[in-house]
TrEMBL record:
Domain annotation Antitoxin SocA-like Panacea: ranges: 28-130
Protein name: Antitoxin SocA-like Panacea domain-containing protein
Domain of life: Bacteria
Gene designation per UniProt: socA
Lineage: Bacteria, Pseudomonadati, Pseudomonadota, Alphaproteobacteria, Sphingomonadales
Amino acid sequence: MYDARAIANFMLDYADERRVALTNMAVLKHIYFAHGWHLAACGKPLISNRIEAWQYGPVIRAVYDCFKEFDARPITSRAYLTDWETGEVVAARADFGVDTIALLKATLDYYSGFGAYELSELTHMPGGPWDQVWNAGDGKVRLNMEISNQAIHDYFIKEAKSASIQ
């Protein structure tokens, strides 16, 4: 599992190579989709961070906090974290395997065709993981509502099966 900020930085670097601008909302959705497809393909999480249900879809707070200053503007910096061994603040990076790199690139290649709000709509599908948490039975919205990896896994497995049937 990886810190989602390292995934965000990889996505931002790759988006720059492809001349694709990513906003905070877009990068969060790209990470969510990569995480979902990774869960479906590998049966284990891509990121170690928790995913929360917020108004505009799934959010990884650590990533959101790094880029919230950009609001709806394209992100032009990278996510940083503290290296606990040295105490230095460094850009979040990870040594991704070949399969992870391929998944991250494929995710960005596919989903970069959608705008940030379209990506948000994709995460709001009725019965999907976000919908199950956000629209829970009692109708109350709570802060920090976690979307479980199991719910994400089950949804993306279902999506993969329905895509392979068509």
